[in-house]
Amino acid sequence: MIRAKKRERLRAFLAGHGIATGIHYNVPLPRHPAFREFVPERETFPVAERACGETISLPLWPGMPEEMLNDVA
Questions:
Q1: In this structure, are residues 28 and 48 in contact, taking their beta carbons and an 8 Å threshold?
Q2: How far apart are alpha carbons 3 and 5 in whole angstroms?
Q3: What is the pLDDT of residue 3?
Q4: Rounded to whole angstroms, how far apart are CA atoms 71 and 43?
Q5: Counted domains in the chain
Q6: Which residues, including other chains, have CB under 8 Å from residue 24's CB and lie 6 or more apart?
Q7: How many angstroms separate the Cα of 61 from the Cα of each of 17, 22, 65?
Q8: CATH number for the domain harbouring residue 41
Q9: According to the model, what pLDDT value does residue 25 have?
Q10: CA 20, 71, 8, 44: dihedral to nearest 10 degrees?
Q11: 31: Cβ–Cβ under 8 A, 6 or more apart, which residues?
Q12: Three-class SS string for the chain?
């Protein structure tokens, strides 16, 4: 996972080069329905909000071909 301020632009660039990306945390945990009861009503979480707008999951797995690893890097 990486962070990029221009996330969608980077995702488009990577897709144009055949590199798939994902967004796995599009809702900050404090706003997730499963955690709602644990979060004070007026509490704000600017770091979590910002991170959810900037994070990108890049492809990486054991046995990933070296050429693919180099392309992603």
A1: yes
A2: 7
A3: 94
A4: 41
A5: 1
A6: 1, 55, 57
A7: 19, 14, 9
A8: 3.90.1150.10
A9: 85
A10: 90
A11: 39, 45
A12: CEECCCHHHHHHHHHHCCCCCECCCCCCHHHCHHHHHHCCCCCCCHHHHHHHHHEEECCCCCCCCHHHHHHHC
Query: Quick one: tokens of 71?
Result: 């392309």
Domain range for 26 is: 2-72
Q: What is the pLDDT of residue 26?
A: 86
Q: What is the model's pTM?
A: 0.78
Write out the chain's pLDDT in tens, 73 residues: 999 999 999 999 999 999 999 998 888 988 889 988 999 988 999 999 999 999 999 999 999 999 999 999 8
